[in-house]
Amino acid sequence: MNNRRHFNPLRRRMVGAALGLGALGPLSSLSFAAGGNGSTNRFVFVVLRGGMDGLSAVPALGDPEFAAARGALAQFGAAPLTLDATFALHPNLSELHAMYGRGELAVVHAVGLPYRERSHFDAQQVLESGGVRPYEITTGWLARALAPSAAKSLALNTAVPLVLRGPGLVDTWAPSALPDPSADLVARLERMYGNDAALATALQRAKTLHFDGAMPNDMNAAADKGMANPGRGGNFSVLAQRAAEFLAQPNGPQAAVLELGGFDSHANQANPSGALSNTLRQLDAGLAALREGLLASGTWARTVVVVATEFGREVAVNGTLGTDHGTGGAAFVLGGAVKGGRVLADWPGLAKRDRFEGRDLRITTDMRALLRGVLADHLQVASKSLNNDVFPGSEAVKGLALLKA
Questions:
Q1: Rounded CA separation 252/330 (Å)
Q2: Which three-class secondary structure state does DSSP give residue 138?
Q3: How far, in Å, CA of 127 to CA of 114, rounded?
Q4: 37-185+230-390 domain in CATH 3.20.20.450?
Q5: Per-domain residue ranges for the chain?
């Protein structure tokens, strides 16, 4: 049983302020800020931390070099799920496979960042900042993309990830095993903050999120179950369900960010009961929960979800039956607004001569092309903003057409 306790963001902020620990800054706000462009489209960005092996998640079974190049990793615990003549999905991605069959999932393969090194920290910084080199930009591309419209955003986490840091306000939510603050405590804090506009506003937003958007009893039960059984979809599924609930609200956020770790698969990668297999199962269950929640509210049809990781892995198996840090990998684009049922890949091949530095799946699609296409077509971000603010210096990167006409 997982006994880790999850902090209640509302209580943490209330107590922190009551103890005189300082005012709440805009990046630590707890519920939806005012403003927005009135768009009903929704966008979700899912960050897979650790470097997902794109050739395990989306094996290129039709590549004549696949079996020889992958060695022991060419074997799966069950039959991979066919996508087309070349590609399949890992057997633990059955829900994604069903979305592909319904035309709701597109796979982008041999995709990656301008960054070509192999540091988790640097690659994640580039993935979230939208830059070319680590730390040249210190804010997030999604925050900058949403800024002109003052659209609302939400991080399903106790802290704001880099991709949402920057101009504007962003909110956070995470499940808690602690009891709710009493009405008396809230009333006392309201009186305490009465003469401080910033604190009073922050408290009111926190009340709106925590009480007006409180989880129904069945959601609380799901949260408890998820925290106790992380191997069955676990906390990621709980967060995905909650994201769907927030996104479905008429005045809810336009964008949300979710995170899932556990993709750094240096050993025993092909084990059907191993870490990577279980993490892929959690990803599949969470994305299915997100779809189910948005479908029930009628929001799925106007939603796009992008699932990306900081880099792929080396093509060849290493000495501990895993893979080491690489470059090219795979990304998923799903949602009711997506023109799915297809794999987009300028496939470079897996022969050693075709690999980057003789080691990695070669990147033939810039991750920024994927993101530019979605931001332009779905969130209506202007080309000038994409070129100058969101992904500076990316004028030559043409956005992918990923959405329905």
A1: 30
A2: coil
A3: 9
A4: no
A5: 37-185+230-390
Place of tokens 């993709």: 263
pLDDT band (50, 70, 90) for residue 34: very low
Catalogue the E-assigned strands of 60-158: 81-82, 88-89, 105-112, 153-155
pLDDT tens readout for residues 360-393: 999 999 999 999 999 999 999 999 999 999 999 9
Tokens matching residue 370: 């994927």
Angle at 232 between CA 283 and CA 275, to 5 degrees: 65
For the stretch 300-310, pLDDT in tens is 999 999 999 99
Instruction: Tell me the percentage of the chain whose pLDDT exceeds 70.
Output: 83
Q: Tell me which amino acid residue 199 is.
A: L
Query: Cα 170 from chain centroid?
Result: 16
The mean of the pLDDT values for the chain is 86
Distances (CA, A) of 48 to 113, 309, 321: 14, 5, 21
Q: What is the DSSP string of 197-221?
A: HHHHHHHHHHHIIIIITPPPHHHHH
How does pLDDT run across 166-183, given as a tens digit for each residue? 997 899 998 877 777 888
